């Protein structure tokens, strides 16, 4: 069976795996984004606090994803739980780093002007600082998403959802008729999803970042 015949025969399962893969990455990125921005907001004013936040989240990436899943399986079991934990933790660094850098890069004169017209600290953060820091934060989200697309495939080791199952099945059956087709289908599917997510982020940037700031 050639690759195109394999796709035709397995398209329903591949679509299901693709949806589960995209859903897992999207939901974990939402969690990672909220946590990352909150951590950035809490630490960016302190030089050591921001650096500690970046260093702590960076240290997570030094742990091999397969090892992290293996360590979590005895604690939370197989399936969705270890997948969500690993993807969320691995997605934090680019968001935290860009949130800290973006917030620190806001022009102090603009913050002083907002203070001068009577804005509270919370209002300045929500209406001035975070909107101006949004472009680098969005860049961090894009980087995290691309990274998690690949890491999510490893989650199949812990019976997680997604296209990684297709890749693992192909690797486990190397030498069989459809082994290469399975690996190719899973890999190409992940690449396509990554491109679609990145295109969505480009559109989101155009919709949410004023033209003057983009330029």
From TrEMBL:
<feature type="transmembrane region" description="Helical">
    <location>
        <begin position="79"/>
        <end position="96"/>
    </location>
</feature>
<protein>
    <submittedName>
        <fullName>ABC transporter permease</fullName>
    </submittedName>
</protein>
<keyword id="KW-0812">Transmembrane</keyword>
<keyword id="KW-1133">Transmembrane helix</keyword>
<dbReference type="InterPro" id="IPR035906">
    <property type="entry name" value="MetI-like_sf"/>
</dbReference>
<keyword id="KW-0472">Membrane</keyword>
<dbReference type="InterPro" id="IPR000515">
    <property type="entry name" value="MetI-like"/>
</dbReference>
<feature type="transmembrane region" description="Helical">
    <location>
        <begin position="51"/>
        <end position="73"/>
    </location>
</feature>
<keyword id="KW-0813">Transport</keyword>
<comment type="similarity">
    <text>Belongs to the binding-protein-dependent transport system permease family.</text>
</comment>
<dbReference type="InterPro" id="IPR051204">
    <property type="entry name" value="ABC_transp_perm/SBD"/>
</dbReference>
<dbReference type="Pfam" id="PF00528">
    <property type="entry name" value="BPD_transp_1"/>
</dbReference>
<feature type="transmembrane region" description="Helical">
    <location>
        <begin position="179"/>
        <end position="204"/>
    </location>
</feature>
<feature type="domain" description="ABC transmembrane type-1">
    <location>
        <begin position="18"/>
        <end position="201"/>
    </location>
</feature>
<feature type="transmembrane region" description="Helical">
    <location>
        <begin position="24"/>
        <end position="44"/>
    </location>
</feature>
């Amino acid at each position: 069976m050639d690759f195109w015949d394999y796709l035709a025969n397995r398209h329903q399962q591949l679509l299901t795996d693709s949806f589960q893969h995209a859903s897992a990455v999207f939901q974990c990125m939402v969690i990672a984004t909220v946590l990352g921005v909150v951590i950035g907001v809490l630490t960016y004013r302190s030089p050591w606090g921001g650096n500690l936040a970046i260093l702590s989240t960076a240290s997570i990436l030094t742990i091999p994803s397969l090892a992290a899943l293996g360590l979590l399986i005895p604690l939370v079991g197989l399936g969705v739980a270890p997948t969500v934990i690993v993807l969320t933790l691995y997605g934090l660094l680019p968001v935290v780093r860009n949130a800290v850098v973006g917030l620190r890069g806001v022009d102090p004169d603009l913050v002083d002007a907002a203070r001068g017209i009577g804005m509270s600290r919370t209002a300045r953060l929500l209406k001035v600082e975070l909107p101006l820091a949004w472009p680098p934060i969005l860049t961090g989200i894009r980087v995290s998403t691309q990274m998690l697309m690949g890491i999510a495939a490893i989650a199949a080791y812990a019976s997680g959802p997604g296209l990684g199952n297709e890749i693992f099945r192909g690797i486990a059956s190397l030498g069989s008729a459809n082994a290469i087709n399975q690996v190719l289908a899973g890999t190409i599917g992940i690449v396509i999803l990554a491109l679609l997510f990145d295109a969505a982020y480009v559109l989101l940037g155009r919709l949410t970042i004023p033209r003057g700031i983009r330029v």
